Amino acid sequence: MRERLFETMLVGNQPKIFDDPSRALNLRMARNRLDKGAITAEAFETELRNTIKGTIDDQIAAGMDRVTDGRIRWDDPVTPFAAAHDGFTIGGLIRYFDNNVYYRRPIIDGPIRFVRSAVLDDYRFASGLTDKPVMPSVCGPFSLAKFCVDQSYSGSRALFEDSARLVGGELEALAQAGAEWVQIDEPFLTQSPDEIALAVDTISAAVRRTGIKTLVYTYFGSLGPIADRVWDLPCDAIGADCVTAPGNLEILLRGPKAVGRSFGLFDARSTRMENPRTITQQLEKIAKSGAVDWPKCWITPSAGLEFLPYKNSVAKMRRLGEAVREFEGVQAVQTV
Amino acid sequence: MLETTSVGSFPKPDYLAKARTAHSKGDLDTNGLLALEERATREWIKFQEDIGIDILVHGEMERGDMTTFFAERLTGYGVSGLVRSYGNRYYRKPIIEDVLDRPNAMTVEFYKWSQALTKKPVKGMLTGPYTMCDWSFDEHYASRRDAVLALAEIIHDEVKDLEAAGAKYIQIDEPAISTRPDEIDLAIEAMEIVTSGIKATTISHICYGDFAKIYPRVLSLPVDVLDLEFANSHMTNLEIFRKPKFTKKVSVGVLDVHSHVIESVKEVKEAIMKSLTVFDPEQVWIDPDCGLKTRTPQEAMDKMKVMVEATQQVKRELGLQ
Q1: Are A121 and A100 in contact (CB under 8 A)?
Q2: Residue B179, min C-alpha distance to chain A (Å)
Q3: In CATH, what number does A7-77+133-147+155-335 get?
Q4: Whole-model pTM?
Q5: What's the pLDDT tens digit per position in A283-296?
Q6: ipTM (interface pTM)
């Protein structure tokens, strides 16, 4: 049984610019200057790392128990991996699920192979900035294959096997660097329910023998069509967006005791602030479902807060931190 | 046949980009900015005339982005901070905070002024109600449907005003329409309100989504022309429209607006010819994939010249003059 009922954390990408004149950081401007040759790559890297530090400072100030690097280096969840490893070229723009956000869809035009971790450097940098545990994240092997245009494997299982080996390389690198947990993004789990067996096999192959605890987070869609199989995933925790698909909360509650959960309760895609009563009711429900016996129970936003303007993202994460602390405080008093 | 046009925006010349920054800092008054917006519009209209474009756009020199521009002219909207749409591109995603209303026409004066610069038709340019809603935060309406239909009434009024001002072509962009295929009926219902009773040729631009999920239902969108992006996907999207038969006019995007590379005349000709294996020549207009505002002015001009030259060669070769 854990000492704390809940742990707060962010999932996904955080805003890369701080809409705050008192802070000099502006990664957008720095990137424009880099593109025009007005600053060096080293100067841009300094700005980027300053931004990672800024997002971690914000998370700590908001009371997040575990922090992330905010994926400040990533334009989207897939191209950092396509750029770092063999077998990909970057293709045309396409919409990122049901968002007004776009990514350049990678094209797989050769065997995909692990080359060098896309995330390790930022994980190490972030870990050096804080005593709090840092949650690194990677694109999941099933979604990595699904995000791309396949011009090399003709849709065969070999694509998913190679994708699993590639992501396995990322997980091993993080494990060797001392990461306790890693978040594996698998948004296509809920978008391609007919392929759940393939997804389970692919994720299993990636996480095998890596020695790192894994949180598989699904984003945006409903777990309903895969509710019977989702617990077959060989991961240590499963997380889902409980805003876009409110039924995900009940599905997560029904899982086995040995698997941790991550509940995306705060709407990362709306500036509307959550009703405190609704959040309290949800936390009560989770608490009464035996959360204290699960290995982990994270409360998070439903997705990355980069869908919001910076100020709204900070307000949202503060509300998240306050709501959980307040709830746990009341619970502690009642226990006493 | 094979009329040439553009989707909407052109890049702002350097002097205008600097002026907009100065205006936002209070270092340039609104009249000073307007004078430079008009200068840049005149330049883009002349450029389009010079290279032989058939249906012109005014180039949107007075607009930042296609949602915020309208949000700033409607009551009930607040404008928030920046959010990223892709790469290093950001926009101020507006917030619906109250009942929406249109105190004045939003685009008519600039349309009339632009049209007076040329004898060729200039398109009236609007953003559709579904996209306006989808690209806004909503803190007021009880449902997305309520917000979309409220916006539809407002945009209908603007379309009527543009038509009354003489617009023969009115484009109501709905790039978000493929975002949620389960909501396409709502987008269609809203567009029925927008184009109700309108005699002008209506166009709707859709891009960067999964067309397969909305085809053929999107043919029920009550506009005359669907303007679609194809070059971004190397024309592979065309196959989606082969069956069932496309029943509207189609504006075929043949220039990748997100690439610095200038297409060759040969490449664009091949793209046009490929589109003619799916659509009849009578159905087809030719244009870039999307607004060209993200390119440099020189890149945009070079791409447009290639597009016109390629179209003219195809027309000559196929005897479509």
Answers
A1: no
A2: 5
A3: 3.20.20.210
A4: 0.90
A5: 999 999 999 899 99
A6: 0.93
